[in-house]
Design a protein that fits this description.
The protein has helices at 2-17, 19-30, 33-49, 60-79, 87-91, 101-112, 115-126, 131-138, 142-172. The protein is an all-alpha fold. Helix 2 packs parallel to helix 4, helix 7 (115-126) crosses helix 9 and helix 8 (131-138) packs across helix 9.
């Protein structure tokens, strides 16, 4: 009984410490506040229900991130990738807002990546996780994560270059 309370405290501390990061992670999958909050809430619920399955108490963070990733992917499967745009994001698409185009290109390119690539990029560059930690979160080999990251960056580079070329053509055409 005592160890269960200790585990609950570890989990609560982890959730509290990383609440912004797990929210951003969920948001990166669904693209709107309400769904991201639902996913985080669902992930917290799942974590408390399956707390006894956590073998290594030292890896609470990776275990919880894995639950958030899985919950996000489950949500997308259920919704079949239907994205609801929020008003503040829609505003960035209004013509005349010059300085946000590059960010929109990146966001669109990230959205176009398959989830297995998008997750690796988000965890590495937006959540600043080490390759080894990402491998633990996703329960994959470190080399698999390195390969996915390389492939994702290659796809992003190609996608962003294509968008730049299209803009050049439309400017001069």
């Amino acid at each position: 009984m005592r160890s269960k309370r200790k585990l609950e405290k570890l989990l609560i501390d982890c959730i509290t410490e990383h609440q912004d990061s797990v929210y951003r992670l969920a948001y990166s999958y669904v693209g709107n506040k309400e769904d991201a909050l639902d996913i985080v809430q669902d992930a917290i619920h799942k974590a408390f229900i399956s707390m006894d399955k956590l073998q290594n108490k030292g890896s609470v963070k990776s275990w919880f991130y894995r639950i958030v990733v899985t919950t996000s992917l489950d949500y997308l499967r259920k919704k079949k990738k239907v994205h609801v745009m929020e008003d503040d994001i829609l505003e960035t698409y209004i013509p005349g807002v010059q300085d946000t185009y590059r960010n929109i290109d990146l966001a669109e390119s990230l959205d176009e990546l398959p989830p297995k690539y998008r997750t690796v990029v988000i965890l590495r560059y937006f959540e600043d996780m080490k390759i080894e930690d990402i491998a633990e979160v996703l329960q994959e080999n470190v080399n698999t994560i390195k390969t996915r990251l390389y492939q994702a960056l290659k796809k992003l580079r190609i996608s962003l270059e294509e968008e730049e070329q299209m803009k050049e053509v439309s400017r001069h055409g």
